[in-house]
């Protein structure tokens, strides 16, 4: 699974470059996110703007990422498309995760700035 990564200030923006976050790639996604957290990233923005479909495995991998942070950092989700936002609302994950519209709002939510 391809993940685009870039830093904005002290926040790491991670964008999955797949249109589906499903059982086929959930384990790989979870492992890559765990490595990013283990290497010291404590402010992560998960930009799901390219993801059109998330199944229970994909959602589980995102939840696992939040748990892996263990309260020692922040994870903000942005860029949800209508279908993925519906899933977040149905599963009440919109109450578990900080969900914002776009990257700029996510950077602001983490207290970062656009300089970087």
Automatic annotation (TrEMBL):
Signal peptide: none annotated. GO terms for molecular function: anti-sigma factor antagonist activity. InterPro entries: Anti-sigma_ant, STAS_dom, STAS_dom_sf. Coiled coil: none annotated. Residues 10-110 form the STAS domain. SUPFAM superfamilies: SpoIIaa-like. Belongs to the anti-sigma-factor antagonist family. This is Anti-sigma factor antagonist. It comes from Candidatus Methylomirabilis lanthanidiphila.
